[in-house]
Amino acid sequence: MKKLILGFAVTVGSLAFAQQTTPPSSNPVTFGIKGGLNVSTLSKGADLNDSKSKTSFNAGVFANIPVASSFSVQPEVIYNALGSKVVREYNIQGNRYVEASSRNLGYIAVPVMFQYNATPEFFIEAGPEFGFLVSARDKVESSTNNNTITRVNGLNKNDFNTFNFGIGLGAGYYFTKNLGVTARYTAGLTNVVKNRPSGSDGVRNNVFQVGLAFKFK
Hints:
This protein is mainly beta. Helices cover 9% and strands 63% of the residues.
């Protein structure tokens, strides 16, 4: 709970700072919605040596707050579907078996992006992201001879760290005053799993995002 409060405090602090430093003649604060595709992975860890990227989605809202002629702060609140996927194939007595297992971790994320507007249409950005785990499950699809069996297993959230911290770097381009395309890579810095064996590698979220943003003007 303390970490949740910290994340929202940073967002509120950014809003307050922007309102105090933005000249009255500058562009006004704008609000918008965004969403798109996630391509996520979990860094190397136990049972993850052969993990692959998993596609999912993100969606949420944002506020864009100008603080100078070429700079703005953009706090966001988004749902972020992260995780990874493992595909294994077996041949037993001439039969081909395929097992696809995906780990699905759902977060409410609060990125706070600091944007440099190189032109009125194009920007680059960087900043921290605070994530809070809200769901954890595994999905397993086993197939053979054109038959597929799907199992979904809920995971105990107590086995995971509920707070996730990362650093994002991205860019965007607005085709019109309202509609733009965005891309961002966020590297996780905190361990996803609790109680890792001493000396073992940490398991961290990493995600590449691409999508659309719409500003209400």
